[in-house]
Design a protein that fits this description.
The structure holds 2 protein chains of 2 kinds.
Chain A (H helix, E strand, L loop, with lengths): L1 E10 L6 E11 L4 E5 L6 H9 L6 E6 L8 E4 L11 H5 L1 H4 L5 H14 L15 H13 L5 E5 L7 H18 L2 E6 L2 H7 L2 E6 L4 E7 L14 H18 L1
Parallel strand pairs in A: 3-7, 3-8, 5-6, 6-7
Antiparallel strand pairs in A: 1-2, 1-4, 8-9
Chain B lengths: L1 H21 L10 H14 L2 H32 L1 H16 L2 H12 L3 H25 L3 H9 L4 H38 L5 H10 L3 H33 L1
Helix pairs in contact in B: 2-10, 3-4, 3-6, 3-8, 3-9, 5-6, 5-8, 6-8, 8-9, 8-10, 9-10
Classes of the chains: A alpha/beta, B mainly alpha.
């Protein structure tokens, strides 16, 4: 559960201040998959970073309904951010090693995660030997390592090609269903947002603000057929319209 | 790979050996490889060459250790407290820009003819490349790594040990490799200027006696020493990389 109350962010002070995010309210329930979509400069990444604790909100409050106080969230960055000197297994277990999890418990957990993200056989590969998609799989496994209730993803698949991206989206849905995490995913692709989310938050720029939150009524699980269904196409059209409208 | 590089070396020695009789070069100008080899053996047996090598190795070892250690520690301190860097930069630069040969006589005057002045000279020349390499490694950490450390709520110590140090390691070893060649030079210079032991002392003696074979022998031994030094650093680098993987 994530409760966002009147959260805003202003960079700079006085005359030179820039509003990155106008006051925003949103409630996100346990196990929901929220897609945040919007143009550059709409504050979507800023919002995610505030939820992650990487930035502080200028005003407002965020409540995370989780008992993990040390690491309440897992975070998947846009460009994987794997430690280049560590292997796939070493990167995945990094959060465990730095929170004092016994080696044996960690080994078992890594094995599980490698299987979950489909990286069997690459445990000892170094990041430079991996494709973009495999790097992101590793990053997802790392974000899930110490089992946070909330997974935050900042345009996680924007650096991989379209084919890989569609495959990764399906994988992500499978992982979401298998783990029951609450996911917040930032994207600039309306199609991706509609396909993945149980809710879609549409944001707009100058100043960054939330325009509308859509409930997505598409049937679960989502498949290739979802993408050709009338409901999906209607939703994509409406989201696009809202984004265009918001730009004016 | 190793055999092929050995082949190049063997070719060079063969050419050298052939050139001396073919061009009729007098032995006081360029003795042949066999003569040099004999001289090295003779020096080992009669002139305690092993002891001289040991002295030079010790000077380089302690000086390099002292220089790199101070370099690494001060870089860590400077990265944490940038004000100190601004205060010390002029002093460090001055010490770096002055020719080391100019410092050597001063050190000999202060510290005598023994090990100490050479160790200090080696430490001074090793310090700068190591400190700057380590410092830039620590200061220009990828910003996304800082975010990762933030998300994982790493403690300052964890951040240093798991992220900053391994990030800085390749640069640190590049700096140490530069420092290693400077360290060899500094030790020999120190010995040339005033010593009663060491390979530089042997070089100076060889020069005084117009003993070309000894001089060439020392040069070859120093080259081997440098190669061993370099290999040791490479080994250390691989071990450190494994440690963090």
């Amino acid at each position: 559960m994530i409760r966002i109350e009147q959260v805003s962010k202003t960079f700079g002070q006085g005359k030179n201040s820039v509003v990155a995010l106008a006051p925003l309210d949103q409630f996100i329930g346990e196990g929901e998959f929220i897609a945040i979509v919007g143009p550059s400069g709409c504050g979507k990444s800023t919002l995610l970073r505030i939820v992650a604790g990487l930035e502080t909100a200028t005003e407002g409050r965020i409540t995370l309904g989780t008992s993990q106080l040390k690491r309440p969230v897992g975070f998947v960055f846009q460009d994987a951010v794997l430690l280049p000197w560590k292997t796939v297994a070493g990167n995945i277990r990094f959060p465990l090693d730095t929170s004092g999890v016994p080696r044996k418990v960690g080994d078992r957990k890594v094995e599980e995660l490698v299987e979950l993200v489909g990286l069997q056989g690459f445990e000892n590969a170094l990041p430079k030997q991996l494709s973009g998609g495999m790097k992101q799989r590793t990053a997802i496994a790392r974000a899930l390592a110490d089992d946070p209730a909330i997974l935050l993803m900042d345009e996680p698949f924007s650096a991989v090609d379209l084919m890989t991206r569609e495959g990764l989206n399906d994988e992500l849905l499978r992982i979401w269903q298998a783990t029951g995490k609450t996911i917040l995913l930032v994207t600039h692709s309306v199609e991706e947002a509609a396909y993945l989310g149980t809710k879609v938050m549409v944001m707009s720029a100058r100043p960054g603000r939330l325009r509308k939150t859509y409930d997505v009524a598409l049937p679960s699980p989502r498949t290739e057929e979802t993408k050709t269904s009338a409901d999906y196409l209607d939703l994509v059209g409406e989201l696009k319209h809202m984004m265009r409208d918001a730009d004016r | 790979m190793f055999l092929r590089s050995l082949l190049g070396l063997a070719g060079f020695v063969a050419l050298w050996g052939a050139a001396v009789p073919v061009f009729n070069i007098p032995s006081y100008l360029l003795p042949g490889p066999i003569e040099v080899f004999d001289r090295i053996c003779f020096l080992f047996e009669r002139a305690e060459l092993a002891g001289h090598i040991q002295v030079t190795v010790l000077e380089i070892f302690w000086g390099f250790l002292l220089g790199t250690f101070t370099g690494i520690v001060s870089a860590i301190v400077f990265a944490r407290i940038p004000v100190l860097l601004r205060i010390f930069t002029p002093l460090i630069l001055l010490l770096q820009t002055v020719p080391k040969i100019a410092i050597a006589p001063l050190l000999l005057l202060w510290l005598g003819l023994g090990l100490a002045p050479k160790v200090v000279l080696v430490a001074i020349v090793s310090y700068f490349p190591v400190m700057t390499a380590m410092l830039s490694g620590l200061r220009y950490i990828d910003k996304s790594f800082t975010d990762l450390a933030g998300v994982l709520r790493l403690t300052p110590w964890q951040r240093f040990w798991h992220v900053e140090l391994p990030s800085a390691l390749p640069g640190l070893f590049a700096g140490a490799t530069v420092a290693s060649t400077l360290a060899m030079t500094a030790a020999v210079i120190g010995e040339l200027m005033g010593a009663n032991k060491g390979m530089g002392f042997m070089l100076a003696t060889g020069q005084e006696n117009a003993d070309t074979a000894t001089v060439i022998g020392m040069v070859i031994l120093l080259a081997f020493l440098g190669w061993a030094f370099f290999s040791m650093l490479e080994y250390l680098r691989k071990r450190m990389e494994d440690r963090f993987s």
